[in-house]
Amino acid sequence: MTGYFTKDDVFTTFNEPSWQRVVFSEFESTLTSKSRPFPCVFGVSGLKAGHVRYAFPDPMTPEALAPILADYLENARSFGTMTSLVVFGRPGPVTPMEDYRDRFWSLLAGLEAIDGKARPAEICPELDSPSWEFCFNGEPIFVVCNSPAHVLRQSRRSTSFMITLQPRWVFEGITDSEDPAVLRSLRIVRERLEKFDAIDTSPYLGAYGDVENREFQQYFLEDTNEAPKCPFHHMPRPDAAVHPSSKGKVA
C-alpha cells in the first residue's frame, strides 16, 4: 500500500460522505472550473492527464507523511512530467492564518528531521539563499500550502489544510524555457492569477535560482503582500533530531 491515490482510486476507495471525498471534490472542481479558470495551467493539465497523486494521512504528521512521500518520489517520474503529490488534512474548525503557517513549517521541519537521505550538495541548507529548496529523500521539492484561512488569496484557499509537493525536475523546461508556447502559458498563469485573487499578485513569486528569489517566501503566502516571515534560520538537517519548536523563529 503506497498511501497515495490516483483520481480513480479516490472515488473507489472513499465513500461520497467521507471527508476525503469532500475535500478532493472541492479541489477538483476548483481546478477544472470553466467559469473561473484556475491560474496554474500546468497543475490543471497534470490533473486532467492523471499525473497527480493524492494522499489523506490522518493525522497529517511528519511520521505519517514521510513513507508516503518517499514512495511517491521514488516513482514520480513514471507518473508523468506534470506530476505532484497533493496532501489533504482532515477538515476542522477554521483557525487563524498563523496557525496554518506554523503547522506547515513544523511539518516540513519534521520531515527533514527524520529524512534518511542527505540533501543534494548543490542545494543550500540555509533559507536565505537563492539555491535553497525543501528536500526529502534526496529530492529538491517545491511546496505550496493552502488553507481555509485564506480569503483574499483564493488561489491558496482550500477546505482543509492542504499541501502540494512538486519535485524540482517538474519545472525543467518551464521556468527556464524560451519556447513561445511555454512563455504564453506562463503569461496566462499571471493573467489568471490577477483575476482569481482579491489581492494583487504577490511580489515574492519568482524563479528558482534568481539572485533575489527566496523559495521559502513562495511556499506559504498569506492574505497580504507584506514580506513573508522567515520561519527558521534553517531547516533541521537529517542527522539533527531537533524539534521545530526549538529552532529560533525570526521576523
How big a fraction of the residues is strand?
5-15%
Number of strands: 6
User: Termini separation (Å)?
Assistant: 41 Å
As laid out across the biggest beta sheet, the strand order is 1-2-3-6-5-4
SSE topology string: EHHHEHEHEEEHH
Low-confidence stretches: 233-251
Structural class: alpha+beta
Task: State the shape.
Answer: globular
Notes on the protein architecture:
The chain is of the alpha+beta class and 251 residues long. It contains 7 helices and 6 strands, in the order E-H-H-H-E-H-E-H-E-E-E-H-H. It has helices at residues 7-13, 19-32, 41-49, 62-75, 97-114, 180-196, 216-219, and strands at residues 4-5, 53-55, 85-88, 134-136, 139-146, 162-167. The protein has a 6-stranded mixed beta sheet with strand order 1-2-3-6-5-4. Helix 4 (62-75) crosses helix 5 (97-114). The chain is globular and about 50 Å long. The model is unreliable at 233-251 (pLDDT under 50).
Quick structural overview:
The chain is 33% helix and 10% strand.
List keywords for this structure.
10% strand, disordered C terminus, 251 residues, alpha+beta
Topology:
Blueprint: E1 4-5, H1 7-13, H2 19-32, H3 41-49, E2 53-55, H4 62-75, E3 85-88, H5 97-114, E4 134-136, E5 139-146, E6 162-167, H6 180-196, H7 216-219
Parallel strand pairs: 2-3
Antiparallel strand pairs: 1-2, 3-6, 4-5, 5-6
Helix pairs in contact: 4-5
